[in-house]
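> call design_seq(struct)
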């Protein structure tokens, strides 16, 4: 049990913060829905509940993925976070379906008059949007930390999108979910105002459907990313960085094999390089130690396996056209 709580301390902090905030928002929206019966409020309540449950899954999964390798699992538990995320998005998919369904029923059977309790609805949704923006900004700063961004403020918002693919799986999910949650809250507010001040009461049903579809977008995006991670995906950016290190070494004649497999937050590196066949075992061991030291300092690299082959005087490896940053 002590080991479990010790691992929890290493879980994704942005996921935990998002889960706690979304739990509070979900409770507030649930109370608002009970008081008003508003369908847009229902959609937002379902959305936020799904986000909170998902982010608790993400936090626990990211923590357990830090567990050290064992005899039974010598490659570690890095892919566990991907498996947990695949399970977690099933919750979001179910809630997304219910949200679209409720919106569709409201659309084909609109109420004869606007929902009462306008200021309760606007206050609850407004509080939700403000809190979601705070969580979204926390996720953006986490992306900046993980990818080495120096931007702050408005530039950070745009750079978070361009560098999202380099962030950790858990951070990506939190960012996408809270981006959709913020947009969903704004859509719900607009729909409530339209429904209250105009005869177009179907606006709330349309808003519910739009929020559900945005939730399905998160489901699809997260599924594709984590399915690849669970299978063991090659990381091209890290591969290019390691290739540059290898080719810069004077003793390395060529790269026979270079695989950098991303498992959760970690990289497993397998290398086979060609060297001068006249080298002694001691000289080859010195090369191995030197290369391994340079590669292990790269962020996220958990283990490195290096093998040697004799130089056949034929260049096999083609370095990337653009050198890594």
């Amino acid at each position: 049990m002590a080991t479990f709580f010790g691992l929890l301390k290493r879980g994704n902090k942005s996921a935990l913060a998002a889960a706690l905030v979304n739990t509070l928002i979900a409770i507030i929206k649930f109370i608002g829905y009970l008081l008003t019966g508003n369908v847009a409020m229902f959609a937002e309540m379902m959305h936020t509940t799904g986000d909170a449950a998902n982010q608790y899954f993400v936090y626990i999964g990211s923590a357990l993925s830090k567990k050290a390798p064992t005899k039974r699992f010598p490659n570690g538990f890095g892919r566990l976070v991907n498996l947990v995320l695949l399970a977690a998005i099933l919750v979001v998919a179910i809630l997304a379906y219910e949200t679209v369904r409720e919106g569709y029923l409201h659309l084909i059977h609109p109420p004869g008059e606007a929902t009462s309790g306008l200021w309760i609805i606007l206050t609850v949704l407004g509080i939700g949007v403000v809190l979601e923006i705070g969580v979204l900004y926390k996720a953006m700063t986490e992306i900046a930390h993980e990818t080495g961004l120096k931007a702050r403020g408005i530039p950070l918002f745009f750079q978070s999108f361009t560098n999202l693919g380099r962030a950790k799986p858990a951070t990506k999910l939190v960012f996408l979910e809270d981006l959709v949650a913020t947009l969903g809250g704004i859509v719900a507010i607009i729909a409530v105002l339209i429904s209250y001040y105009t005869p177009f009461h179907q606006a709330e049903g349309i808003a519910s459907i739009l929020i559900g579809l945005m939730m399905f977008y998160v489901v699809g995006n997260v599924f594709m990313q984590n399915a690849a991670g669970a299978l063991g995906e090659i990381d091209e950016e890290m591969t290019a960085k390691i290739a540059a290190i290898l080719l810069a070494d004077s003793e390395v004649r060529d790269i026979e094999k270079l695989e950098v497999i991303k498992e959760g937050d970690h990289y497993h590196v397998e290398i086979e390089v060609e060297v001068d066949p006249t080298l002694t075992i001691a000289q080859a061991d010195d090369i191995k130690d030197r290369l391994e030291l340079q590669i292990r300092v790269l962020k996220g690299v958990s283990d490195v396996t290096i093998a040697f082959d004799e130089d056949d005087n034929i260049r096999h490896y083609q370095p990337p056209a653009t050198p890594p940053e």
